[in-house]
Amino acid sequence: MSKPAWKTLSVVLAMAVSLPAFAVQDQAIPDDSLGLSKTSVYDIPDAPVMAEYGGGDPGSNKRIAKSYYSAPPMIPHTIKDMVPITRDTNLCRDCHVLPDLIGQKLSPGMPIPSPASHYVDVKKGELYMGRWNCIQCHRPQAKVDLLVKSTFRKAK
Q: What residue spans define the domains of the chain?
C-alpha cells in the first residue's frame, strides 16, 4: 500500500474506534444515578436527626472510660447551659480549676481537676489561658446509634 492509502486507512480506523465514544456522550445520565445518594439531586432531604447529648447534671454521672492512656477525659454531663465557652465566660473553670486536688483520690461526684499541664502556676492556681476552650479536646458524648462498628482495641 502507498503512503496516502495508509493515512486514509488509519483515519477510517480512528473514526470507527471513536464512534462508540461519541454515542455515549449523547446519552444523558439520570439524576438519580449521580453521586453516592440514590435519590434525585432535586429532592429536598429530610432534616437530620438531632443528637441527644447524654448525662444529667454535673456530678451525677459515671466517668467515661478513656480509649487510651493519654486521651483527654470525655464530658459525662450535659453542657447545654454552659456554652458558648469564651475566654471571659467559662463555667468549666468554676468546677474543674482545683489545683489542690491534683493527684488526690477523688470520691464519686467530685469534679476531675484540670491537670498541671493546664496551669501557668499550679501553686497559685493560675490557669494557662491557651487552654480556655475546653471543648476543643473534651467532648460531651451523644446518645446515637453507631454507623460503623469500631474495631479499635486498647493496647496491652
A: 51-144
